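Aggregate trends can hide what the representation actually does to any particular protein. For completeness, the protein is quoted in full, as a sequence line and a line of structure tokens.
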Amino acid sequence: MRRILTSAVVVAWVVGGASTAFCEDLEELILDLRSRSENKRVEACRDLNRMGPPALPAAPHLARLVTSDRSDKVREVALDALWRIGPAAIGTAVELLNQKDPRGRSSGVQLLTWWEEKLTEDLLRPHVEGLVRALEHPECRSHCVGLLARKGGVEAIGPLLRLLGERDDETRTAAIQALAGPARQDLAAVCRCLETDARSRVRAGAAEALGRMGEAASEAIDALLAALDDPQQEVVLQAAKALGHIGEHPDRVVPRLLEGVASPVPAVREACLQAAAEY
């Protein structure tokens, strides 16, 4: 009887809000997800799949099956049910990205791939920190970088800037790549980091992120010119490269770059020369 009721109460949810019958049915399905019977767990997942978005309260329970159920079939139908629930379950997907179990992380990536076009900045905003943490996992990086760069919003800037000091080069590079999008909304935050952070590795990363933005970072020219006087070579190097990528205000920038051509450090000389040539 419950299986027949399920379809009907979904209609009631969509038309007039969650009915008592729907809530009871959903609770029963969630209980079935814990059943010792594999067939019962599979059927519960399939019923939740048919419910679609209204089955959102079941998302954490489905995620548990995705990562820990012994049955390949159960894991498969649980992931399908999460997909059908849709982007509203982004919080569950982000939690999967940060699981210790590689299966959880790969499932989180799969969900992000399926939902990518429907994920909005508003949906992602509460989960920015989780997406940034997931940059530590190689299999999650490219998807998280893309999402943060396109839809991370200003909330992503602070967490990404903190990663610029990471010792792991791949995580740090991913953070720099991801910064290029949200930094357009708050260049001042990245410039402050370039000017004031005590760690040269972070200052260099901020300069590189500005350079990746190209002409969109033209308002950062003053901060980058000041960074040419930084005592650390890695900062000067990235500032010179960034100025070349931005390519704005040649009357102010080119003379300073030509001064850098006289640097005793070969890498700085070459970077300044190449950057000046961009103009």
Remarks:
- Residues 1-16 have pLDDT under 50 and may be disordered.
